[in-house]
Amino acid sequence: MTDKTLIPPSPSEDDYVAQVAKAPPPPQLSETDPFALFAAWLAEAVASEPNDANAMALATVDAGGLPDVRMVLLKEADARGFVFYTNLESAKGRELAANPQAGLLFHWKTLRRQVRVRGAVSAVSAAEADAYWATRARASQIGAWASSQSRALPDRLALEKKIAEFGLKFGLGKVPRPPHWSGFRMTPQAMEFWRDRPFRLHERLVFTPAAGGWTTERLFP
Predict the structure, then answer these.
(1) 58, 156 in Cβ contact below 8 A?
(2) pLDDT digits (tens, 9 = 90+) for 40-60
(3) Which residues are catalytic?
(4) What is the pTM of this model?
(5) Which of 13, 75, 83, 156 is paired with 59 by a 20 to 30 Å CA distance?
(6) List of long-range contacts for 217-221, beta carbons under 8 Å, 24+ apart
């Protein structure tokens, strides 16, 4: 059982008052373009987060409808959607092939902000996957060949042996992209921007696609 002494207590009234004094109320969130707002927030996160500001939780469901979630890295974001790459034979790859819908969550602790995205997922083009693959470190490329992602591993030595085997196979030559490795793009059906405010009275703004643009709705915290 969890030791309750390890769980931080809720902020006191004095804690909130100090928070307000330290950080005056920010202007309201822009309701114009969610991708521009996301880009601005991500730029701030890159400057303030200690590492992996582009990390995001990816939620899928398995064949039985049981949710599955893990951290992945965002590799592209524009008006077309959010792109990440993976082994297509991994758990997430198989789940997205069977049910191409997912949820994303960015949480930037230093900024006290988060962005939730829900939508349909589709495969990126081979050209896009090849272009990103070419930017990866050689050791990472070989690792993608060696790892049977999400499947049982007898011991660490078995992985190291496969890495050595593929290292020898490709020698000093170019490492091609594996046929089982590519990317996915989520096209948002909803994007929610959440910003921490004192006394749990947080700010929430939801964007949903509409003809020629976006509609917005503010939610109770």
Answers:
(1) no
(2) 999 999 999 999 999 999 999
(3) 200
(4) 0.90
(5) 156
(6) 219/192, 221/197
